[in-house]
Write a structure and sequence with these properties.
single chain; alpha+beta; Immunoglobulin-like; 10 strands; about 35% helix; rod-shaped
């Protein structure tokens, strides 16, 4: 009879474990490095029978690069501690000093059931003075680049103007050709137009070169 009752209790506990649902808090953490962080693993149903709460439940923690990525089990080491929370052994994981490499998705597993996961995103702490110095350096480089660009444009325009002036100075205006240049007419001691009749040949007179 005792074996029958034990079997019935075992089947009941198996049924309850199947319906067991796990939640995690918080679901997302984003912050700077060198801070502390705790992730809690909880039963999502508060109205479960007391038999479930009295069970020796132990959480196992896993880490993945993304939600659907491959999970790797996490063991307690320096900077990562496991503590009991509520009725769950290792019910929360505590980071004493969050670093960049701690970024990822963390899952707790209780009795074969995984929690929904908590994403951790850690970013480096920014030095305000260093950021201001970099901003000033960037502004200075932008101003220097602008001045260099203006100087290059001015040099190109100046060179172009000098070339045009040099070309204009080397250009000589061609002399005007006269249709009568080289034509010499003897005046024969008389006016040019008045004595033209003296050079006119009469009809029938042959030219010397004929």
């Amino acid at each position: 009879m005792r074996w029958i009752l034990a079997g019935c209790c075992g089947l009941a506990l198996i049924g309850l474990s199947v319906t067991l649902q796990i939640s995690q808090k918080p679901r997302f953490y984003g912050g700077r490095t060198s801070q502390s962080l705790s992730i809690y693993c909880l039963f999502s149903r508060h109205d479960m029978p007391s038999a479930v709460h009295t069970r020796n439940s132990t959480a196992v923690w896993y880490k993945a690069d993304k939600y659907d990525g491959e999970k790797e089990r996490i063991h307690e080491h320096e900077g990562v501690l496991f503590r009991k929370w509520n009725v769950i052994q290792n019910g929360f994981i505590h980071f004493t000093n969050v670093q960049i490499e701690d970024s990822g998705v963390y899952f707790c597993q209780v009795n074969g059931t995984y929690g929904p996961g908590t994403e951790v995103l850690a970013v480096k702490r920014r030095d305000v003075s260093q950021a201001a110095y970099r901003s000033k350096m960037k502004d200075g480089l932008i101003v220097i680049q602008g001045l260099l660009l203006a100087a290059c444009i001015a040099a190109i325009l100046l060179r172009k103007q000098k070339l045009m002036e040099k070309r204009d100075s080397e250009y000589e205006e061609p002399e005007t050709d006269h249709i009568y240049e080289g034509l010499a007419i003897e005046t024969c001691e008389g006016g040019l137009y008045e004595d033209l009749s003296a050079y006119a040949r009469t009809e029938g007179t042959e030219a010397p070169w004929e």
